[in-house]
Amino acid sequence: MQFAPGYRRFALPAFVGAAVAAFVFPPLGAVLLAAGAFVLWFFRDPERSPPDEPGVVSPADGHVSVIRVEDGRVRVGVFMNVTDVHVNRAPVSGAVRTVTHRPGAHKPAFSKDSDRNERVDIELDTDEGDHEVSLIAGAFARRIHSYVAPGDELVRGQKLGHIDFGSRADVLLPPEYGSEDVVVEKGESVRAGETVLARR
Protein backbone atom coordinates (compact mmCIF):
# COMPACT_ATOMS: atom_id res chain seq x y z
CA MET A 1 0.00 0.00 0.00
CA GLN A 2 1.27 3.45 -0.91
CA PHE A 3 0.80 6.45 1.37
CA ALA A 4 0.44 10.15 0.62
CA PRO A 5 3.46 12.31 1.51
CA GLY A 6 3.50 13.66 5.04
CA TYR A 7 2.08 10.61 6.78
CA ARG A 8 5.25 10.15 8.84
CA ARG A 9 4.81 13.44 10.73
CA PHE A 10 1.56 12.10 12.18
CA ALA A 11 2.14 8.35 12.28
CA LEU A 12 5.66 8.18 13.73
CA PRO A 13 4.95 10.16 16.94
CA ALA A 14 1.93 7.98 17.58
CA PHE A 15 3.85 4.73 17.09
CA VAL A 16 6.86 5.91 19.14
CA GLY A 17 4.52 7.07 21.89
CA ALA A 18 2.73 3.73 21.79
CA ALA A 19 6.03 1.85 22.20
CA VAL A 20 6.98 3.93 25.24
CA ALA A 21 3.52 3.91 26.79
CA ALA A 22 3.26 0.14 26.43
CA PHE A 23 5.72 -0.18 29.33
CA VAL A 24 4.37 2.72 31.41
CA PHE A 25 0.62 2.74 30.86
CA PRO A 26 -0.56 0.02 28.43
CA PRO A 27 -4.07 1.47 27.86
CA LEU A 28 -2.51 4.69 26.54
CA GLY A 29 -0.18 2.62 24.39
CA ALA A 30 -3.17 0.90 22.82
CA VAL A 31 -4.82 4.26 22.09
CA LEU A 32 -1.66 5.63 20.49
CA LEU A 33 -1.22 2.47 18.45
CA ALA A 34 -4.77 2.80 17.17
CA ALA A 35 -4.14 6.47 16.36
CA GLY A 36 -1.06 5.56 14.33
CA ALA A 37 -2.97 2.89 12.45
CA PHE A 38 -5.74 5.40 11.70
CA VAL A 39 -3.21 7.86 10.27
CA LEU A 40 -1.81 5.19 7.94
CA TRP A 41 -5.32 4.29 6.83
CA PHE A 42 -6.24 7.94 6.29
CA PHE A 43 -3.14 8.62 4.19
CA ARG A 44 -3.62 5.53 2.01
CA ASP A 45 -2.98 6.13 -1.68
CA PRO A 46 -4.52 3.33 -3.78
CA GLU A 47 -3.91 2.96 -7.50
CA ARG A 48 -6.57 4.38 -9.81
CA SER A 49 -7.19 3.92 -13.54
CA PRO A 50 -9.08 6.52 -15.61
CA PRO A 51 -12.00 5.07 -17.59
CA ASP A 52 -11.81 4.44 -21.32
CA GLU A 53 -14.77 6.75 -21.88
CA PRO A 54 -14.05 10.48 -22.37
CA GLY A 55 -15.06 13.13 -19.89
CA VAL A 56 -13.98 15.15 -16.87
CA VAL A 57 -13.22 12.78 -13.99
CA SER A 58 -13.64 13.44 -10.31
CA PRO A 59 -10.68 15.07 -8.53
CA ALA A 60 -11.56 13.34 -5.27
CA ASP A 61 -13.18 10.39 -3.55
CA GLY A 62 -16.38 11.28 -1.73
CA HIS A 63 -19.88 12.54 -2.45
CA VAL A 64 -20.95 15.26 -4.86
CA SER A 65 -21.89 18.22 -2.67
CA VAL A 66 -21.95 21.13 -5.13
CA ILE A 67 -23.41 21.51 -8.62
CA ARG A 68 -24.02 25.13 -9.53
CA VAL A 69 -23.48 27.77 -12.20
CA GLU A 70 -21.39 30.79 -11.25
CA ASP A 71 -20.41 33.56 -13.66
CA GLY A 72 -21.43 31.43 -16.61
CA ARG A 73 -19.38 28.38 -15.60
CA VAL A 74 -20.44 25.14 -13.95
CA ARG A 75 -18.81 24.12 -10.67
CA VAL A 76 -18.92 20.53 -9.41
CA GLY A 77 -17.67 19.96 -5.86
CA VAL A 78 -16.86 16.71 -4.06
CA PHE A 79 -16.91 16.52 -0.26
CA MET A 80 -14.38 14.16 1.30
CA ASN A 81 -15.24 12.90 4.76
CA VAL A 82 -12.75 11.30 7.10
CA THR A 83 -13.33 7.81 5.65
CA ASP A 84 -12.47 8.79 2.07
CA VAL A 85 -9.10 8.68 0.32
CA HIS A 86 -7.73 12.24 0.37
CA VAL A 87 -5.32 12.09 -2.58
CA ASN A 88 -6.60 14.34 -5.35
CA ARG A 89 -6.26 13.75 -9.09
CA ALA A 90 -6.33 15.75 -12.29
CA PRO A 91 -9.83 15.76 -13.84
CA VAL A 92 -8.44 16.26 -17.36
CA SER A 93 -5.15 16.20 -19.22
CA GLY A 94 -3.50 19.58 -19.68
CA ALA A 95 -0.78 22.02 -18.72
CA VAL A 96 -0.71 23.64 -15.30
CA ARG A 97 -1.00 27.39 -15.87
CA THR A 98 -1.08 28.63 -12.28
CA VAL A 99 -1.10 27.29 -8.71
CA THR A 100 -2.49 29.83 -6.26
CA HIS A 101 -2.75 29.49 -2.48
CA ARG A 102 -5.53 31.55 -0.91
CA PRO A 103 -5.63 31.81 2.91
CA GLY A 104 -9.01 31.74 4.56
CA ALA A 105 -11.28 30.21 7.17
CA HIS A 106 -11.67 26.56 8.18
CA LYS A 107 -15.42 26.06 8.12
CA PRO A 108 -16.90 22.58 7.57
CA ALA A 109 -16.19 21.64 3.96
CA PHE A 110 -19.81 20.62 3.34
CA SER A 111 -21.22 24.03 4.34
CA LYS A 112 -21.93 27.05 2.13
CA ASP A 113 -19.40 29.05 4.16
CA SER A 114 -16.60 26.74 2.96
CA ASP A 115 -16.30 28.83 -0.23
CA ARG A 116 -14.30 31.27 1.93
CA ASN A 117 -12.01 28.56 3.33
CA GLU A 118 -8.29 28.26 2.77
CA ARG A 119 -7.71 26.76 -0.66
CA VAL A 120 -5.30 26.05 -3.49
CA ASP A 121 -6.57 26.79 -7.01
CA ILE A 122 -4.90 24.98 -9.91
CA GLU A 123 -5.65 26.28 -13.43
CA LEU A 124 -5.29 23.75 -16.24
CA ASP A 125 -4.98 24.76 -19.90
CA THR A 126 -6.58 22.03 -22.05
CA ASP A 127 -7.80 21.50 -25.61
CA GLU A 128 -11.36 22.11 -24.35
CA GLY A 129 -10.54 25.34 -22.55
CA ASP A 130 -9.55 26.29 -19.04
CA HIS A 131 -10.42 23.99 -16.16
CA GLU A 132 -9.80 24.97 -12.55
CA VAL A 133 -9.35 22.53 -9.69
CA SER A 134 -9.79 23.90 -6.17
CA LEU A 135 -8.50 22.00 -3.15
CA ILE A 136 -10.46 23.43 -0.20
CA ALA A 137 -9.58 22.92 3.45
CA GLY A 138 -12.26 21.83 5.91
CA ALA A 139 -12.87 22.38 9.62
CA PHE A 140 -10.05 20.05 10.68
CA ALA A 141 -7.83 20.31 7.60
CA ARG A 142 -4.87 22.54 8.30
CA ARG A 143 -2.62 21.77 5.38
CA ILE A 144 -3.13 21.51 1.62
CA HIS A 145 -0.34 19.80 -0.28
CA SER A 146 0.02 20.53 -3.99
CA TYR A 147 2.23 18.20 -6.02
CA VAL A 148 2.27 20.35 -9.17
CA ALA A 149 3.79 23.62 -10.41
CA PRO A 150 3.15 25.96 -13.33
CA GLY A 151 4.35 24.42 -16.58
CA ASP A 152 3.76 20.80 -15.52
CA GLU A 153 1.98 18.60 -18.05
CA LEU A 154 -0.64 16.39 -16.43
CA VAL A 155 -2.58 13.42 -17.73
CA ARG A 156 -6.14 12.72 -16.67
CA GLY A 157 -6.18 10.90 -13.33
CA GLN A 158 -2.63 11.91 -12.35
CA LYS A 159 -2.10 12.76 -8.69
CA LEU A 160 -1.95 16.53 -8.11
CA GLY A 161 -2.17 16.91 -4.33
CA HIS A 162 -3.81 15.93 -1.07
CA ILE A 163 -5.41 17.60 1.93
CA ASP A 164 -4.92 16.54 5.54
CA PHE A 165 -8.06 15.45 7.41
CA GLY A 166 -11.38 16.37 5.82
CA SER A 167 -11.98 18.71 2.89
CA ARG A 168 -13.52 19.40 -0.52
CA ALA A 169 -12.27 19.38 -4.11
CA ASP A 170 -14.03 21.29 -6.89
CA VAL A 171 -13.80 21.41 -10.66
CA LEU A 172 -14.76 24.65 -12.41
CA LEU A 173 -15.60 23.66 -15.99
CA PRO A 174 -14.93 25.79 -19.09
CA PRO A 175 -17.74 28.12 -20.29
CA GLU A 176 -18.47 25.68 -23.12
CA TYR A 177 -19.94 23.24 -20.58
CA GLY A 178 -23.53 23.60 -19.43
CA SER A 179 -25.46 22.05 -16.57
CA GLU A 180 -26.81 19.45 -19.00
CA ASP A 181 -23.25 18.16 -19.49
CA VAL A 182 -22.94 17.15 -15.82
CA VAL A 183 -23.62 13.40 -15.54
CA VAL A 184 -23.66 13.07 -11.74
CA GLU A 185 -26.12 14.23 -9.11
CA LYS A 186 -25.75 15.73 -5.65
CA GLY A 187 -25.14 13.05 -3.06
CA GLU A 188 -23.71 10.60 -5.58
CA SER A 189 -20.60 8.66 -4.52
CA VAL A 190 -17.57 9.23 -6.79
CA ARG A 191 -13.96 8.04 -7.02
CA ALA A 192 -10.94 10.21 -7.81
CA GLY A 193 -9.60 9.71 -11.32
CA GLU A 194 -12.28 7.18 -12.25
CA THR A 195 -15.82 8.57 -12.02
CA VAL A 196 -16.83 10.83 -14.92
CA LEU A 197 -18.44 14.07 -13.67
CA ALA A 198 -19.17 15.77 -17.00
CA ARG A 199 -18.81 15.20 -20.74
CA ARG A 200 -19.70 17.03 -23.92
Overview in brief:
By secondary structure, the chain is an alpha+beta fold. It contains 2 helices and 13 strands. The protein has helices at 8-24, 26-42, and strands spanning 56-57, 62-70, 73-80, 87-89, 94-102, 119-126, 129-137, 144-146, 153-154, 159-163, 167-172, 189-190, 196-198.
Any overview of this molecule?
The protein has 200 residues and is an alpha+beta fold. The protein folds into two domains: 2-45; 56-198, Glucose Permease (Domain IIA). It is built from two helices and 13 strands. It has helices spanning 8-24, 26-42; strands at 56-57, 62-70, 73-80, 87-89, 94-102, 119-126, 129-137, 144-146, 153-154, 159-163, 167-172, 189-190, 196-198. Helix 1 (8-24) runs antiparallel to helix 2 (26-42). The longest helix has 17 residues, at 8-24. It is elongated and about 65 Å long. The two termini are 35 Å apart. The relative contact order is 0.22. The mean pLDDT is 88. This is Phosphatidylserine decarboxylase. Pfam families: PS_Dcarbxylase. One of its GO terms (molecular function) is phosphatidylserine decarboxylase activity. The chain crosses the membrane at residues 12-43.
